[in-house]
Amino acid sequence: MADQHTGGWDELALGTRRRYRRGDTLFREGDASATVMAVLEGRVKISIVTPSGREIVLSTKEPGDLVGELAALDGRRRSATATALCDVAVTTMSTAAFEALLDAEPARARQLLHVLAAQLRAANLQRSERDEGSTVQRVARRLTSLARSFTEHNDPGAPVELQLTQDDLAGWVGATREATNRALAALRTTGCIATRHRRVVVTDPAALAALAQRGVPSVIAEP
Questions:
Q1: DSSP 8-state assignment for residue 68
Q2: Residue 121 maps to a domain
Q3: Confidence (pLDDT) at 127
Q4: How many structural domains comprise the chain?
Q5: Same domain, 166 and 208
Q6: Which of 29-43, 51-65, 116-130 has the highest mean pLDDT?
Q7: 96 and 176: one domain?
Q8: Which sign does the torsion angle of CA 183, 186, 190, 191 carry?
Q9: Rounded to whole angstroms, how far apart are CA atoms 169 and 148?
Q10: I need a surface site. Which of 4, 10, 22, 130 has the fewest CB within 10 A?
Q11: DSSP letter for each residue of 153-214
């Protein structure tokens, strides 16, 4: 029986399973590509480091998503670094086996094209939003997006606890850690979020989504 978390990539469920702890690196930018992974549990951060040393978060991979498929397609080295945002379980397939699968099953190749097209659209949207609005709005927008992905099958109005660091959040929104900290402080003042060690709790998702659009009230100084 196929693993329910492979998002339709049933063959990857037959691969080698591996587990990673929060903060572990699955692979680094520039590494040789030997495998394709499917996320079974947890979330994986995909990021790059600019020449100035600043981390930019490109995307997150959730259960059912593939990791490392681009390098498998073009045979080049890893174009980004993959890091476990929490405890993660993956299953792996060699790039040669993955290529053979796509050659043998055109439907799989079309499925992968749909996945890549969706990733490109999401990347373009994230790129456009990174410089749109104040830092507070960008932080609120990213937290809203993450909260929605965590509550896909649950009560959308219930509080959501997100496991992420302020550095991760800063990388997502394209801001410094200091500016991100100030934005979180402003959002805490509104009561829509609370912060804990390596966690952000979205206490009022609807209010946070509204602030993502209009910003915080004028009586609160935005960064």
A1: S
A2: yes
A3: 63
A4: 2
A5: yes
A6: 29-43
A7: no
A8: positive
A9: 16
A10: 4
A11: TS-TTS-EEEE--HHHHHHHHT--HHHHHHHHHHHHHHTSEEEETTEEEES-HHHHHHHHHH
Same domain, 85 and 142: no
Q: Provide the domain limits for residue 204.
A: 135-214
pLDDT tens digit string along 142-199?
A: 898 888 776 654 566 678 888 888 888 888 887 888 999 999 999 999 999 999 888 8
Indicate whether 6 pLDDT > 70: no
User: Domain check: are 44 and 152 in the same one?
Assistant: no
Nearest to 34 by CA among 50, 55, 18, 21: 18
Are 113 and 154 in the same domain? no
Q: Residue 192 domain-assigned?
A: yes
59: exposed, middle or buried (C-beta count within 10 Å: 0-12, 13-18, 19+)? middle
**Per-residue pLDDT tens digits for 105-139:** 888 888 888 888 877 777 666 666 666 678 898 89
Among 82, 102, 130, residue at a domain's last position:
130
Angle between helices 106-130 and 135-150 (to 10 degrees): 150
Structure tokens at 207: 């209010």
For tokens 């900290």, the residue is 181
Token readout for 156 is 């959308």
34: its two tokens: 């030997």
Q: With left for phi above 0 and alpha for psi between -120 and 50, is residue 141 left, alpha or beta? A: alpha
Percent of the chain surpassing pLDDT 90: 24
